[in-house]
Amino acid sequence: MGQNSPMAADGSEYVDEIKALVCETFDVDPETIDENTPFAEMGVDSRRRVRLLATVEVEFGVDLDLDELDRLVDIRSAATVLAEAVEAGAKPRKRGLPGFLRRNRLS
Question: What's a Pfam family in this record (predicted)?
Fold first, then answer.
């Protein structure tokens, strides 16, 4: 694929997987949400979005920057953040804490 590929980092390929993670992590019925349902409507506050970011890191084996947290507003945006990280060459993590926890020593 060329640099100007229309498939570039829109996250489409990750939407179903992110939705499954969201439903499992936050005990949400998948029939009640779609990829554009705001996390706030699901009761997912900023602390729970940190948990989602960590879960995505663990499940996909990549490091994501905590600065991306504000972009996680729905399933589609979470999928896009993941796709951009993968496209940018996010390196698989070593076992242990998610990258942003190691860097920021959050508990």
Answer: PP-binding
